[in-house]
Automatic annotation (TrEMBL):
<dbReference type="GO" id="GO:0003677">
    <property type="term" value="F:DNA binding"/>
</dbReference>
<dbReference type="InterPro" id="IPR036390">
    <property type="entry name" value="WH_DNA-bd_sf"/>
</dbReference>
<dbReference type="InterPro" id="IPR036291">
    <property type="entry name" value="NAD(P)-bd_dom_sf"/>
</dbReference>
<dbReference type="InterPro" id="IPR009718">
    <property type="entry name" value="Rex_DNA-bd_C_dom"/>
</dbReference>
<feature type="domain" description="CoA-binding">
    <location>
        <begin position="84"/>
        <end position="185"/>
    </location>
</feature>
<feature type="DNA-binding region" description="H-T-H motif">
    <location>
        <begin position="21"/>
        <end position="60"/>
    </location>
</feature>
<protein>
    <recommendedName>
        <fullName>Redox-sensing transcriptional repressor Rex</fullName>
    </recommendedName>
</protein>
<dbReference type="InterPro" id="IPR058236">
    <property type="entry name" value="Rex_actinobacterial-type"/>
</dbReference>
<dbReference type="GO" id="GO:0005737">
    <property type="term" value="C:cytoplasm"/>
</dbReference>
<dbReference type="GO" id="GO:0045892">
    <property type="term" value="P:negative regulation of DNA-templated transcription"/>
</dbReference>
<dbReference type="Pfam" id="PF02629">
    <property type="entry name" value="CoA_binding"/>
</dbReference>
<dbReference type="GO" id="GO:0051775">
    <property type="term" value="P:response to redox state"/>
</dbReference>
<dbReference type="InterPro" id="IPR022876">
    <property type="entry name" value="Tscrpt_rep_Rex"/>
</dbReference>
<keyword id="KW-0804">Transcription</keyword>
<keyword id="KW-0805">Transcription regulation</keyword>
<feature type="binding site">
    <location>
        <begin position="95"/>
        <end position="100"/>
    </location>
    <ligand>
        <name>NAD(+)</name>
    </ligand>
</feature>
<dbReference type="GO" id="GO:0003700">
    <property type="term" value="F:DNA-binding transcription factor activity"/>
</dbReference>
Length: 260
């Protein structure tokens, strides 16, 4: 596939979400010295079905070679092209609290073509601090850091109540790609892309599946076997069956809390 075609191929969002996983697996295979990989082996490395993998890669125009598989280097380059990793991307982070500090110091950005060029916060106690080699600037300095013509991604690590205002300022400064860590929905123009990272929602989804597994496990468990009645010569069987057991409390159900 020609590079000119990369931006015009219509790739489903679900496929796009899996492309970074394929790229990471291919990087590991390349480091191990492998030149080709079967769809089954690559799918197993990523944790998806081989049929889904082949369909995903077909959207990129890559079908592999029967009996051989995929060329690791070529497929890596092709996916990297689609993910924009052949281009250097500037990143600005707004909100230098605990999360902002962690993001600023993340070493994985540079190896994937992302360069943090600016840190911003409006807190007087934070502005001027040097984090991972960069000074924290006031948000008013944003236009002076962004360079016309250079692609820039804005990362929001601010409280939800400030996210929309900060996003508006990023958009006004020319940012058209926003990664939002705030637990709120942002309203942006049609030409601005927003990706939301909601850690609480991800934990709730995991809790939902854990709860379902617990319920299924309880339902599948065999019912306890009642002990055989013990004969008592002095009390007729019918009379014994009507006598309440001392201290009986009835069955107790342990309920798993609902995930809201």
């Amino acid at each position: 596939m020609d590079e000119d075609e990369v931006g015009t191929v219509d790739v489903p969002e679900a496929t796009v979400a899996r492309l970074p996983q394929y790229l990471r697996a291919l990087s590991t295979l390349a480091e191990a010295g492998l030149r080709t990989v079967s769809s089954e082996a690559l799918a197993d490395a990523v944790g998806v079905g081989s049929a889904k993998l082949r369909k995903d890669l077909s959207h990129l125009g890559s079908y592999g070679t029967r009996g051989v598989g995929y060329d690791v280097e070529q497929l890596h380059r092709q996916i990297a092209d689609h993910l924009g990793q052949t281009t250097s991307w500037n990143v600005v982070i707004v909100g230098i609290g605990n999360l902002g500090h962690a993001l600023a110091g993340y070493g994985g950005f540079a190896s994937r073509g992302f360069r943090v060029v600016g840190l911003f916060d409006d807190g007087a106690h934070v502005v001027g601090e040097v984090v991972s080699g960069l000074p924290v600037r006031p948000l008013d300095d944003l236009p002076s850091v962004l360079r016309p013509g250079e692609p820039t991604i804005g990362v929001l690590a601010v409280p939800a109540e400030h996210a929309q205002v900060v996003c508006d300022r990023l958009v006004a400064a020319g940012v058209t790609s926003v990664l939002n860590f705030a637990p709120t929905v942002l309203r942006v123009p049609a030409d601005v892309d927003v990706r939301k990272v909601d850690l609480a929602s991800e934990l709730q989804i995991l809790a939902f599946h854990a709860q379902r597994r617990a319920v299924r496990s309880t339902a599948a468990a065999p019912a306890p076997t009642a002990p055989a009645p013990t004969a008592t010569a002095s009390v007729p069987a019918l009379q014994r069956s009507r006598r309440p057991a001392l201290g009986a409390t009835g069955p107790v159900l342990d309920r798993v809390g609902e995930v809201v």
